[in-house]
Amino acid sequence: MYSLKGSIYNFKKKRSKYYADERYVTQQLLKSLPHRQYAVISDLLLPNDGQFRTSQIDHLIISIYGIFCIETKSHKGWISGSKAHRLFKQILFRNSFRLTPNPVEQNNSHIRTVRGLIGERLKAPIVNIVVFPSAERFFINGYEDVGSVNDMIESVFRYGEKVYSYEEASKMIEVICQFNIKKPIEHVKHVQRVRAVHV
Q1: What are the respective helix, strand and coil percentages of the chain, to the nearest 5?
Q2: How many domains does the structure of the chain reveal?
Q3: Cis-peptide, bond into residue 101, ω within 30° of zero
Q4: Is the CB of residue 78 less than 8 Å from the CB of residue 138?
Q5: Contact predicate 127/153, CB 8 Å
């Protein structure tokens, strides 16, 4: 039987404590998702035509059941989110901090990048998932697929209807990996461009 096993990519080489949550999410995805049906691609840097010229994507799942774009946030404490107000906040030790940029909207920009690269091969909307591995509680109003690592896994498994053949999924994996910018200097440039806007 044809499968996606062997098509599991992880470009992450960072060892900083800052990236511990991203590594943990990658490990849980690889542990929880059957390799025959799902390929997990982590730490992508893809070209786009937007303001920053590149999109840094934490995790991209390409499967026969669809495509999932995952944004990982390392915030602790309580997380509140309101779609009506387009606002996310971290509540920590009775203090409230606004999360900028909005992680769902940030991930939407990543999805547009992936959609542009995949093109006509795309048969279904890319699922937007935001995960906070270190958060304790969530108060989310209006947003779907935002929560803990367990919530993330449940969100992926909700999509159980086959959308792509194995050949189609493998071709999309190939396309994304071909566009991945691996050079460290490009990663530095991306971070500098983002900080210039949000800091």
Answers
A1: 35, 30, 35
A2: 1
A3: yes
A4: yes
A5: no
Averaged over successive runs of 10 residues, the pLDDT of the chain (199 residues) comes to 53 59 95 94 88 86 98 96 96 93 96 96 98 97 97 98 96 95 51 40
Residue 81 domain-assigned (yes or no): no
83 located within any domain: no
Q: Print the domain residue range for 183.
A: 9-74+104-198
- Has residue 122 been placed in a domain? yes
- Find all residues with CB under 8 Å of 59, minimum gap 6, and list them: 22, 25, 26, 29, 40, 41, 42, 68, 69, 70, 72
Residue 95 makes CB contacts below 8 A (sequence gap 6+) with none
pTM: 0.86
DSSP string for 86-150: TEEEEEETTEEEE-SS-HHHHHHHHHHHHHHHHGGG--SPPEEEEE-TTEEEEEEES-SSEE-HH
Q: Which of 59, 27, 25 is nearest to 42 (CA)?
A: 59
Q: Is residue 21 part of a domain?
A: yes
Task: Give the CA angle between residues 159, 179, 68 to the nearest 5°.
Answer: 15
